[in-house]
Design goal:
single chain, about 750 residues, alpha/beta, 8-stranded mixed β-sheet, 5-stranded parallel β-sheet, about 15% strand
């Protein structure tokens, strides 16, 4: 019995081995024949799939390595289609894996900082006005360098804005022109600006040449093709967008309630066929003709009548009934649907009009999304949920609507109102990536005054800036440093500068006094200066120029600066009161001597006046208090051309400082109590009597006003009629009840 079992087991084992060798041979032969067919078909340019394998194919234990600039497929043995090959060779995909760490050379920025070089314009090359504005904004910025060896970033002079082959602005043979540039280096450390890419009918995001490792500052870029922390998404702007300055937003006041005549509006083209047609074709479902007015027209293009549908005539008639500007200024929300491309001109138009944008462009990387929190200024919708848009915006509380509208105004004026601001925002974002240890945080970018005016090189601590005391729960500074600008020799102990020094030193808020000696005569001996309870530091100006009074001296240890001309006459009481007022307005200039500006219609230029009226727009820095950050901003933000003009004229430095502070704060300065004798006393001083009486001095200040306004692109000065006096000032009550009683006696 046992022998039979053993024979049966041996027979079964033998049968299994025979079957195994048989099927293995079939598989082996099938594999060899399949390989031969593949070789044969490969020689003939064809590929035919073989029969299903008996055993599954397992992937390799280690997948092959793909370089960053090659298109990666799921299986390297799978052939690539012609479309995939085109995409792999196109510029928008080839560097898709680029990041700052892999495609940017940081060593170029370590030696000379963040400097930008613009290639010289080549002969015969036409540049569109919009691109000329971009290049002019770069060349006029503090980042510009004409020396390529000092550059950290390079910008082409070849016009890359419009890459639509059907556009008259399209630049031909751009690929060969770019490759011939000796500094191109496969695009490394280069920035390419682009507004339009692709052409009819699919409008792809291909710019038409190999960008290599260059960064893109691109409008209408999709999140799929956007390379985070490498590319910069910019807004689509028209050729009429101002180069500098730009108009202010239309929300002049905090309108309460925030609701307007229309809840939701749109007026624009409707595309009957092709990409971008679905969303706009469906808008009529939401239009009610009352508070939701969404108007489209198909009357555009050469062949619109060939493709017109049954709604075209009715839509065109309704379209003509409404004025777009009237709708824009009287709407709470503005619809921003995608067009042929993801971006739209309606986006910037809505921001300026304080009309909250309702975005309907799935996959659009919103402008400057790396730093701007768009949830604070816009409603991000979904094209697939169009019918839910009205009910969604109706559910937003009025407080939230007001906050959204106010944020649209801040973002418009801070980053979008001019080509210059768009370009500078782009450059500042790139600079923050390079110098991460001093980069701006989200609060700086999304809160007044914005990232362009808050320079992180000054400090990485928000408490060192005058704009964030409330956010950080900090109290304003309790001490100030008096900086006296001395330009005449010290010949008598009765000179006004010595009396001024003593009066400032007696203030309970004074921490120290700095005398800036800009006189041609040697420094007086130490015993010539009066003894005071606070330190007196005398600094001899190296250049002896007017702008040196606003240098960010390390000797200034307090945040508050009391700026004084040597012939100013102020009492200790006046100094104390002015400083207590400044503590409530630390971002503004607070002081005594006021001046104003006006528009001269006959001469079509800005005028300057020193007449005593109830209206003013400047507080002169001969007797004013401000934050010391403005010294740094004056020295590092303003161009050398304006400071050189001030130094050559030995005039207008106080006007330029007022321009700067008003441009940053969007607020007027604050004038405090003015004594009657102030004007006569100022005029009576020998050191500056000739300057005030000199008609050329006044004419120079008129000229300065217009030069400064031209550089800023608009007039930043703001008129005010507010004057702050002490409590009970001039009231018919006992003098003992008044804190600053001495002011009334002056």
């Amino acid at each position: 019995m046992q022998a039979k079992k053993r024979y049966f087991i041996l027979l079964s084992a033998g049968s299994c081995l025979a079957l195994l060798f048989y099927f293995g041979g079939v598989q082996f032969r099938a594999s060899r024949s399949h390989s031969r067919r593949e070789e044969h078909s490969g020689r003939n340019g064809l590929h035919q799939p073989g029969p299903d394998h008996f055993w599954p194919r397992f992937p390799d234990a280690l997948r092959p390595f793909f370089p960053w600039d090659q298109l990666e497929n799921e299986d390297s043995s799978v052939p690539i289609s012609p479309r995939q090959k085109r995409d792999a060779n196109s510029s928008i995909y080839k560097g898709k894996k680029c990041r700052m760490e892999s495609c940017f050379d940081f060593t170029l920025c370590k030696k000379n900082g963040f400097k930008v070089y613009v290639y010289p314009q080549q002969k015969g090359e036409k540049i569109a006005e919009s691109y000329q504005n971009i290049l002019a904004a770069i060349e006029g910025s503090r980042f510009y360098t004409s020396d390529p060896s000092q550059a950290c970033l390079f910008v082409l002079s070849l016009d890359t804005l419009d890459r639509d082959q059907l556009s008259p602005q399209y630049v031909h043979n751009l690929r060969s022109k770019v490759q011939s540039l000796h500094l191109w280096n496969n695009g490394r450390n280069h920035l390419i600006f682009n507004l339009y890419s692709g052409t009819w009918p699919d409008y792809t995001e291909d710019v038409g040449f190999d960008i290599g490792q260059a960064m893109l500052a691109k409008a209408s870029i999709s999140t799929e093709n956007f390379r985070p922390n490498f590319d910069v998404s910019i807004p689509l702007f028209s050729k009429d967008h101002p180069r500098t300055g730009g108009e202010r937003g239309f929300l002049k006041f905090n309108t309460i309630p925030p609701l307007r005549k229309y809840m939701l509006v749109f007026k624009g083209k409707r595309y009957l066929t092709g990409i971008g047609s679905d969303t706009r074709n469906a808008l009529y479902h939401v239009h009610n003709g009352e508070d939701v007015v969404l108007l489209t027209t198909c009357r555009h293009g050469k062949d619109w009548q060939k493709h017109k549908d049954s709604r075209c005539d009715r839509d065109n008639t309704e379209y003509e009934k409404y004025d777009y500007r009237e709708m824009l200024h009287n709407a709470t929300f503005c619809l921003v649907p995608r067009g042929r491309r993801l971006g739209s001109f309606r986006f910037l138009e809505a921001l300026q009009a304080a009309c909250v944008p309702v975005m309907l462009s799935n996959g659009w990387e919103l402008p400057f999304s790396e730093v701007i929190n768009w949830n604070q200024a816009a409603v991000i919708g979904d094209e697939r949920l169009l019918l839910q848009i009205p009910s969604t915006i109706r559910s937003i509380h009025q407080d939230k609507i007001l906050a959204l509208r106010q944020q649209t105004q801040f973002l418009w004026e801070a980053y979008f109102s001019s080509v210059e601001k768009i370009v500078l925002t782009t450059l500042e974002i790139i600079q923050d990536r390079i110098f991460k240890h001093i980069s701006r945080n989200s609060l700086i970018w999304n809160k007044h005054p914005g990232g362009l005016f808050v320079l992180p090189q000054y400090s990485s601590y928000l408490g060192d800036f005058p704009y964030y005391y409330a956010n950080l729960g900090l109290k304003p500074p309790s001490k100030f440093t008096a900086v006296i600008h001395a330009v005449t020799p010290l010949v008598s102990q009765s000179q006004p500068v010595l009396k001024l020094l003593v009066a400032a030193a007696k203030s309970q808020y004074c921490a120290q006094i700095i005398v800036l000696w800009n006189c041609d005569k040697p420094l007086p001996a130490k015993h010539r200066w009066p003894a005071t309870a606070v330190p007196v530091i005398v600094i001899e100006g190296e250049s002896k120029v007017m702008s040196s009074r606003f240098l960010p001296y390390d000797n200034i240890i307090t945040d508050a600066v009391l700026s004084l001309d040597e012939d100013t006459v102020l009492s200790t009481t006046e100094v104390d009161f002015a400083f207590t007022v400044w503590q409530s307005f630390p971002e503004r200039i607070v002081g005594y001597p006021a001046r104003s500006h006006f528009w001269d219609n006959s001469k079509e230029r800005w005028g300057y006046t020193s007449k005593w009226t109830n209206d003013y727009s400047m507080v002169l820095t001969g007797a004013a208090i401000y934050h010391k950050y403005y010294h740094y901003l004056y020295s590092h933000y303003l161009p050398a051309s304006l400071k050189n003009m001030v130094d050559q004229l030995a005039n207008c430095e106080d006007i330029l400082m007022n321009f700067l502070v008003s441009a940053v704060t969007k607020l007027p300065p604050i004038k405090v109590t003015q004594k009657k004798q102030y004007k006569e006393t100022m005029m009576g001083q020998t050191s500056r009597a000739s300057r005030w009486a000199d008609p050329d001095h006044f004419a120079q200040r008129q000229s300065c006003m217009n030069t400064f306004a031209s550089w800023f692109g608009y007039m930043p000065l703001i008129h005010s009629q507010m004057r702050l006096d002490p409590v009970l000032f001039k009231d018919q009550v006992s003098i003992l009840r008044k804190k600053y009683r001495d002011i009334e006696r002056l």
